[in-house]
Automatic annotation (TrEMBL):
One of its GO terms (molecular function) is antioxidant activity. PROSITE patterns: THIOREDOXIN_2. It comes from the Bacteria. This is Thioredoxin family protein. Residues 163-185 are annotated as: Disordered. Gene3D superfamilies: Glutaredoxin (3.40.30.10). It comes from Thiohalocapsa marina. Residues 9-161 form the Thioredoxin domain. InterPro entries: AhpC/TSA, PRX-like1, Thioredoxin-like_sf, Thioredoxin_domain. It holds the Pfam family AhpC-TSA.
């Protein structure tokens, strides 16, 4: 398992479009996932300890962000041939178990992860209403273990600011997680 940090935010970089199958049986596009005040694209998976440490917080924060007009979507891009826990069937199970309030999509070709420049799980891309990038940071201080309950909610606060102002914070702390498991590597 290789741990990586995400690059710094390239403000106003446009959100690539996608059309991916969800665990709910639907095919989802970027625009169908976006809310009136923005879009949060999360690259996550099932097996990564960094993601497991924040799943409940992802559910809490995305539910609250939906109330602020931020649409949220999670994309799983790991190669399930290498990590069976990341299979589509297991994605369905995890989404149901944790009651994901957002579409959970499979990027089987890994083209969407490459288009976004995703490097790890979790990797967060926060966009404004014009789908310009405003946040590329961490959820909170969690790593492989969940941060204390009173930890600052970096992602939530940043996306709430995007919902209000259309701009993300200038100072952002990178997300850290397991490297995306690319096919053939």
């Amino acid at each position: 398992m290789v741990s990586l940090e995400t690059p710094v935010c390239e403000f106003d970089l446009p959100a690539p479009d996608f059309s991916l199958p969800g665990v709910d049986g639907r095919t989802w596009s970027r625009d169908e996932c976006a809310g009136p005040n923005g879009l949060l694209v999360m690259f996550i998976c099932n097996h990564c300890p960094y993601v497991k440490a924040v799943r409940e917080r992802l559910v809490r924060d995305t539910r609250e962000l939906a109330g602020l007009g931020i649409g949220c979507v999670a994309i799983q891009s790991n190669d399930p041939a290498e990590y069976a826990e990341d299979s589509f069937e297991n994605m369905k199970h995890v989404a149901e178990t944790f009651d994901y309030p957002f579409p959970y999509l499979l990027d089987e070709t890994q083209e969407v992860a490459r288009a976004y420049g995703a490097v790890c799980t979790p990797d967060f891309f926060g966009y404004n209403a014009q789908l310009g990038l405003q946040y590329r940071g961490r959820l909170d201080a969690s790593r492989k273990e969940t941060a204390p309950a009173d930890a600052r909610r970096d992602l939530f606060e940043a996306m709430a600011q995007v919902a209000r102002t259309g701009r993300g914070p200038e100072q952002q702390i990178p997300s850290m997680g397991c490297s995306i498991k690319w096919r053939g590597e």
